[in-house]
Amino acid sequence: MSPQNYLSELFALDGRVAVVTGGSSGIGKAIAGALARAGASVVIVARREAELVAAVDELTADGCRAAWVSADLGTRDGVRAAAEKAAAVYGEPDILVNNAGINLRPPMGEVDDEVWDRTMAVNLEAPHLLSQRFGPGMAARGFGRIIHVTSQQAHRAFVDSGAYGVSKGALESLARSQAEAWSPHGVTCNTLVPGFVLTPLNARLQSDTEKIGALAARTMIGRNGLPEDFAGAAVFLAGRGSAYVTGQSIFVDGGFSVH
Ligand SMILES: NC(=O)c1ccc[n+]([C@@H]2O[C@H](COP(=O)([O-])OP(=O)(O)OC[C@H]3O[C@@H](n4cnc5c(N)ncnc54)[C@H](OP(=O)(O)O)[C@@H]3O)[C@@H](O)[C@H]2O)c1
To answer: In what residue span(s) does the Ketoreductase domain sit (predicted)?
Structure first.
């Protein structure tokens, strides 16, 4: 067997269909790009159309199969409509990446019902509802990959973790519950745990060079994360080669969590 064929057997995603939420920006955009370049047909889901179009145009210009669905994952109806629209493009997905997330960051004492509900809706409930929609089908077909994107704050509290940390901790528990249910049927369910990654999500913080430098110094690699750092781990978790990896939280954080 040629090295090319060997690598393809482990990692290629030809013929697979992937849905990536938040695939128009930051980490999700890099993951969608990685899955598409590895051969998957990718549907990205987010709200803003201009960003969705730009992300898909970039991929199609690169010879990839990609499409977009505009939807608000902050409401149950929005999530359900997004799922149906996404499945209508290339068929039922083999790979679901629950990456869309928000971090509203008020101090704990100011976490009101609105902050709590919005955070839980986008960060926890949308991943649950999308998985409920697609997971059983993956199990019936005997192959599936569910990948959630969580946070250091699923494991430790800092910089006003508040409702955000709670939502991400619960998302890792959700991955384990799903792994228990669906792994016997070929569906692995894992989470990618970023460190501090330079994306629009934390644009305001990035103007504070001292804070950014201190965060980089907390890693072992010596720099903050970039969206493209997630490409390899995402392709691995989406492919055949990770068939025996399930229920896990995989830290892509430059050593942040172990420093
Ligand atoms: N950057 C970091 O340092 C870091 C660290 C730890 C964890 N994370 C996690 O990594 C994930 C991606 O973060 P990022 O930094 O790449 O963020 P980002 O650049 O702000 O991208 C967020 C994506 O989610 C979409 N989105 C947000 N709210 C949505 C909604 N209600 N409905 C549909 N789509 C929605 C956004 O598009 P629209 O706004 O157009 O909807 C965008 O595509 C998040 O789950 C985040 O919590 C990031």
So the answer is: 16-185
